[in-house]
Amino acid sequence: MKRIDIKGRIVADDHLEVYEWFGYAATSPSVVKSAIAEAEMTGEKELLIEINSGGGSVFAAAEIYYALKKFDGVVNVEIPSLAASAASFIAMAGHKVSMSILAQFMIHGASTFASGNHQDMTDTSDFLRSIDDSIINAYLTKTSKSREELRTMMDKDTWMTPQQALEYGFIDEILFENSQPNVVASVGNSDETEMLPQEVIDKVKAEILAKKNSSIPDPVNVTKPQMQNEEDNTMDLKTLQNNHPELFNQVKQMGHDEGVKAENDRIKAIEEIAPVGNDALVQAAKFDKPVTAEQLAVQIVKNQKEAGAAFYTNAQQDAEQLQDISGEQAPENQATSEQKFSAGLMNVWGGNKQ
Fold first, then answer.
1. How many structural domains comprise the chain?
2. Is residue 108 part of a domain?
3. What are the tens digits of pLDDT across the range 24-44?
4. Which helix (H) or strand (E) holds 54?
5. At what angle do helices 118-140 and 147-155 cross, to 10 degrees?
6. Within the chain, which residues score under 70 in pLDDT?
7. Coil, helix or strand for 351?
8. Rounded to an integer, what distance in angstroms lies between the CA atom of residue 240 and that of residue 259?
9. Model pLDDT for residues 73-124, shown as the tens digit of each residue
10. CATH number at residue 59
11. Same structural domain, 166 and 293
12. Whether residue 150 sits in one domain with residue 45
């Protein structure tokens, strides 16, 4: 039986190295796919998927679910401690889903960040409802609850004990149910399920790429020079989080605040330069295909230049057709096409002068 661990945040493949650089546990679709491919090459017909995750990217989780469902064999899922959010519907790919007596199972609706006018908010709401409907499809393959019941449970963030998850049909078995463990309850760290802001991911990816292209060693593996009788005191993000939680939270909040400010500044700059008559281009620059205000300005100038060239060409062709008229039908004014075009521009922009 091939064992595959799905731990930490569920992230896209191109974000994985950023989380690893920070020292966060994370799983991406390519990690799971590679493990499945190894199992298939060795002729394995059974997988053991151990899930300990607070969730993450819906689309990355959906890709993992798909890969597990395509496996030509038996998929067993075990939940030692937590399967929440996106990780909960990955668990639904198992033919048999087992849950430790100490574990928790949680389902809720998808969430995202959005900005814009009331129509943008409505579109985002419709998008999230569509995502929720897709997630419910996975739950319906295991539980006997109706779509309406599942939507109600997701709307209010439903946490389940192993007994409740078994009763509702999300799992098939409770592990160690007959044992008598000594249980200590503790409030979980909210960092376990929080995703890094996109601005932070982009910045760190740029740093990683720069270091790969230079001889500078990776800062995660750099240790300060040891003095005599001084212990190795390597500092990475995980150590910072564990030993200096207040400083860690300050750094994380700074990253979040910088990301939000950068996005707000970008939108504001676009709105300040946006000319009348370019609504579709401005909308795309804000949300559909995000660009900076400078890039938008270049696109607007380019479009206006192309429109001006087309206007000049059409006007010149019209003038040349009039010039070709002969005989009694010819106009009295035999001006050149260029003169006619200039006169036309005078009529358009300044009116006829007497």
1. 2
2. yes
3. 999 999 999 999 999 999 999
4. strand 46-56
5. 120
6. 114, 179-195, 213-237, 240, 247-248, 270, 273-277, 286, 293, 296-298, 301, 304-305, 307-354
7. coil
8. 21
9. 999 999 999 999 999 999 999 999 999 999 999 999 887 776 788 888 888 7
10. 3.90.226.10
11. no
12. yes
Query: Residues 134, 278: one domain?
Result: no
- If phi > 0 it is left, if psi is from -120 to 50 it is alpha, else beta; for residue 75 that is beta
- b/e 209-223 (16+ beta carbons within 10 angstroms → b): eeeeeeeeeeeeeee
Gyration radius (Cα) of the chain, Å = 31
Q: How far apart are CA 53 and CA 60, in angstroms?
A: 13
In a domain, 269, yes or no: no
- Helix and strand numbers (H, E) in the chain are 13, 9
Record the tokens describing residue 61, joined without a space: 């989780």
Q: Are residues 151 and 18 in the same domain?
A: yes
> 321 lies in which domain range?
274-326+334-354
* Residue 295: count of CB within 10 angstroms of its CB: 13
DSSP type of residue 14: G
* CA 171/CA 78 separation, integer angstroms: 9
Which of 178, 206, 237 marks a domain boundary? 178
339: in domain = yes
User: DSSP H helical segments within 99-161, as ranges?
Assistant: 118-140, 147-155
Residue 338 CB-density burial (10 A; 0-12 exposed, 13-18 middle, 19+ buried):
exposed
Q: Is residue 305 situated within a structural domain?
A: yes
Question: Please, what is the end-to-end C-alpha distance for the chain in angstroms?
Answer: 95
Query: For 6, phi and psi rounded to 5 degrees?
Result: -115, 100
Are the CB atoms for 10 and 56 separated by under 8 Å?
yes
* The pLDDT of residue 346: 46
